[in-house]
Design a protein that fits this description.
By secondary structure, the chain is of the alpha+beta class. The longest helix has 98 residues. It starts with a helix and ends in an 8-residue tail after the last strand. Strand 1, helix 13 and strand 2 form a beta-alpha-beta unit. It has 14 helices and five strands. A five-stranded mixed sheet has the order 1-2-3-5-4, covered by helices on one side. Helices cover 69% and strands 8% of the residues.
């Protein structure tokens, strides 16, 4: 609403100046023609110090220059509205045109320069450019004063043309002339006041927005602290899951291997010795992976091998050190995904094997992987003792968390042995060799 009012004032200043300039030029032409038609030229010339050369030509030039001002105003309002360089160029050009109009009127009217002032206030935001243009415009306005210029040069006066008429007509013409000049100044003053009020309102809005921004910044800082604490909590939970999975899997394999050694130590010492060597190797691998889990939290086998090879190695190691037979059947080709997906699948299988041996006392474990649309279907089934009432323990809880972070689901069934069914959505955005 405020911008429309300011634009209304600008248009008002433009119209007033057009009326005044054309009125002065047309009045000079009409009076000149009237003097000539009445043959009063000798008497009129005896009372003036100068007359305009070719009044009609001056009228045409003034009309053309006013049209150029209108074009410049329209360009500023539409085409060059967001181009500060072109707006500045238009204002400089308008100042030059306004000076030419003042010159054509023999400095009898310099109010046209006010229109250029209003444009500078409205459009020029750069402080240095604004001060430069304003100083130039004020200098032109002061130097274009008739009283100052007529001291050195002979200029015709519009008042001398008014004196050609009778006293009543002179008073009317002079009143119209002064009213137009005063009205132009009054509209410009109202424009300046409204512009200042508008700018003050914008400053108040900026201050209010700044206060709101400070509040938002404080909230963001609080949120950042909270997010950092949540991230630390998630990291601690992730670290706990990694250590639990790695350590639990390694210790389960060692325990199963030692149980086998106890059973064979008396009847087959050589077999027991070989079994102890396997347990020793598995223990060393487990220690390495535990160390790596603490530092990088990613299975070492996944860093060195592909996912299917890493799973096959884990299965082979478990088959070697325990009395449990683990079978791995993968129906998915090119089993390589993003790092978080590989890590989740590997850890779920690892935890499933560990739970089947430690809690289910299973002798056989079947692991199958299939693809259905964009999902991986993972099943870990054993022939152990099962569980009629499934309690949420550390291992099953971490399985749910890992699959949940990938947007998947996992279910457990303890009615016939123990079965883990997981559905994991995979990002199949890239083909791998």
């Amino acid at each position: 609403m405020k911008s429309k009012r300011i634009r209304f004032f600008q248009i008002g200043i433009l119209i007033l100046n057009m009326i005044t300039v054309i009125g002065i030029s047309a009045f000079t032409c009409y009076t000149t023609e009237l003097i000539c038609s009445r043959y009063d030229a000798r008497e009129f010339l005896s009372g003036v110090s100068a007359i305009p050369w070719s009044p009609w030509r001056k009228l045409y030039i003034c009309v053309i220059l006013l049209l150029l001002l209108c074009v410049g105003f329209a360009l500023r309002e539409t085409v060059f509205k967001a181009n500060m360089k072109m707006i500045t160029f238009c204002l400089v050009a308008e100042l030059f045109v306004a000076v030419l109009i003042v010159y054509q009127l023999n400095f009898n009217y310099n109010g046209i320069l006010i229109m250029v002032f209003s444009g500078m206030l409205m459009y020029v935001k750069d402080r240095k450019a604004q001060m430069t243009l304003m100083a130039l415009s004020i200098a032109c306005f002061l130097l274009a004063d008739y009283s100052l210029i007529s001291v050195k040069w002979n200029l015709y006066s519009i008042e001398s043309y008014m004196r050609y008429y009778d006293s009543a007509t002179q008073q009317t013409l002079l009143s119209i002339y002064n009213v137009l000049i005063s009205l132009n100044m009054a509209v410009f003053v109202m424009y300046c006041v409204d512009f200042i009020v508008t700018q003050r309102g914008r400053i108040d809005e900026v201050n209010a927005l700044y206060e709101e921004l400070e509040k938002v910044n404080e909230q963001i800082q609080e949120y950042a602290v909270m997010s950092e604490k949540m991230a630390e909590t998630r990291e601690r939970n992730r670290l706990a899951r990694e250590i639990h999975d790695t350590l639990g899997h390694t210790l389960t394999g060692i325990a199963a291997g030692i149980d086998a050694c106890i059973a064979t130590v008396d009847v087959a010492p050589e077999t027991t010795k070989k079994q102890l060597e396997l347990i020793s190797n598995v223990t060393r691998d487990g220690i390495k992976e535990i160390r790596r889990s603490v530092s990088e939290l990613r299975p070492d086998a996944l860093d060195r091998f592909s996912l299917d090879y890493a799973i096959a190695k884990m299965v082979a190691d478990m088959n070697a050190v325990s009395g449990t037979k683990v079978y791995f059947n993968c129906q998915v080709k090119n089993l390589k995904f993003d790092e978080d997906e590989e890590n989740a699948i590997y850890r779920v299988i690892q935890e499933g094997i560990t739970n089947s041996i430690r809690h289910g006392k299973a002798e056989k474990i079947w692991i199958t992987m299939n693809r259905e649309d964009s999902d991986i279907l993972l099943q870990i089934k054993d022939n152990g003792i099962g569980s009629k009432e499934i309690k949420t323990g550390f291992g099953t809880k971490h399985m749910k968390e890992r699959i949940g972070m990938l947007g998947g689901t996992v279910t457990f069934d303890g009615s016939n042995g123990f079965t883990v069914n997981a559905r994991i959505p995979i990002r199949w955005g890239e083909n791998y060799d």
